[in-house]
Amino acid sequence: GEPAKVMFTVQSRREDHGTNFSCRWELDLRSQGLELFQNTSAPRKLQTYVLPSIDPHLEVPPIVEVGSRWPVNCTLDGLFPASDAKVYLVLGDRNWNPI
User: Fold this and answer.
1) Which end of the chain is more exposed for a tag (fewer CB within 10 A), N or C?
2) What's CA 43's distance to the chain center, in Å?
3) Which regions span the lipid bilayer (predicted)?
4) For the segment 28-46, what is each residue's pLDDT rounded down to a tens digit?
5) pLDDT tens, 72-93?
6) 8 Å CB contact between 12 and 48
7) How far, in Å, are 27, 28, 35, 68 from residue 32 at the CA level?
8) DSSP SS3 for 24
């Protein structure tokens, strides 16, 4: 009648990103003349992230002329997966999207 609950602690690694995992249970009643019951949950995809403890590095010219265009470079070392990150530039109260 009572649900069975088992908890595991698993330490994820960067290389585990995107790996499928599932829960499998077995109830072996063969010693009582019955059978082995087993089932597996639907798989789930593990998503791992590394959030660096350092601040982003912003490269901009120290002086710019009004009306001119200039490059801005923002980097964050160690972020994983970088393809899932979104980068925004905020100038005053305006958001700028990368080109």
Assistant:
1) N
2) 17
3) none
4) 999 999 999 999 999 999 9
5) 888 889 999 988 888 888 888 8
6) yes
7) 12, 9, 8, 83
8) strand
Q: Are the C-beta atoms of 18 and 47 separated by less than 8 Å?
A: yes
Structure tokens at 47: 């998503």
Q: What is the pTM of this model?
A: 0.57
- Secondary structure (3-state) at 82: helix
Paired residues of 40 in beta bridges: 24
Listed residue (19, 14, 21, 16) closest to 82, CA to CA: 14
**What length does the chain have?**
99
Are the C-beta atoms of 70 and 61 separated by less than 8 Å?
yes
